[in-house]
C-alpha cells in the first residue's frame, strides 16, 4: 500500500529541513568524540521523528509506515555527515 500524499509531502519536507540542519553544522574545535557526534545525530533524528509524528495523516498503521520511512531517510542523509566528521577527526 502506498503512503498517503500528505505523508509523502511531510517526509520530503522533513528531509529538506534535516539536510539544512546538517549543512549548517560547523565541526567543533576542540572536536568532540565520534560517539558523542553519533549521539547528537541520533537525537536530531529522534527530534524530527517526534515532531512529524503529530502531523502524519491516516490510520495508525499508515502513520507508523510513514514515520519508519522518514527515519530511514534521515539516517541515510546523516551517514555522509558522520563519514565527513570521522574524516575531520582523523585530521587531528
Automatic annotation (TrEMBL):
Q: Name one GO cellular component term.
A: cytoplasm
GO molecular function terms attached to this record: hemoglobin binding
- Which sequence ranges form a coiled-coil region, renumbered to this chain? 53-80
Localization: Cytoplasm
Q: Which UniProt keywords apply?
A: Chaperone, Coiled coil, Cytoplasm
> Biological process GO annotation list?
erythrocyte differentiation; protein folding; protein stabilization
Task: Tell me, in one coarse class, where this protein mainly resides.
Answer: cytoplasm
Entry's family note: Belongs to the AHSP family.
Q: Cite the PANTHER family for this sequence.
A: ALPHA-HEMOGLOBIN-STABILIZING PROTEIN (PTHR15914)
Relate the assembly described in the record. Monomer. Forms a heterodimer with free alpha-hemoglobin. Does not bind beta-hemoglobin nor alpha(2)beta(2) hemoglobin A.
- Name assigned to this protein: Alpha-hemoglobin-stabilizing protein
Per the UniProt record, the source organism is Enhydra lutris kenyoni (northern sea otter)
Q: Which gene encodes it?
A: LOC111162206
Amino acid at each position: 500500500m502506498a503512503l498517503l500524499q500528505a505523508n509523502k509531502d511531510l517526509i520530503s519536507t522533513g528531509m529538506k529541513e534535516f539536510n539544512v540542519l546538517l549543512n549548517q553544522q560547523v565541526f567543533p574545535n576542540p572536536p568532540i568524540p565520534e560517539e558523542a557526534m553519533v549521539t547528537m545525530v541520533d537525537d536530531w533524528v529522534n527530534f524530527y521523528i517526534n515532531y512529524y509524528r503529530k502531523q502524519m495523516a491516516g490510520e495508525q498503521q499508515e502513520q507508523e509506515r510513514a514515520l519508519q520511512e522518514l527515519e530511514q531517510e534521515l539516517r541515510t542523509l546523516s551517514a555522509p555527515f558522520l563519514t565527513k566528521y570521522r574524516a575531520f577527526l582523523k585530521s587531528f
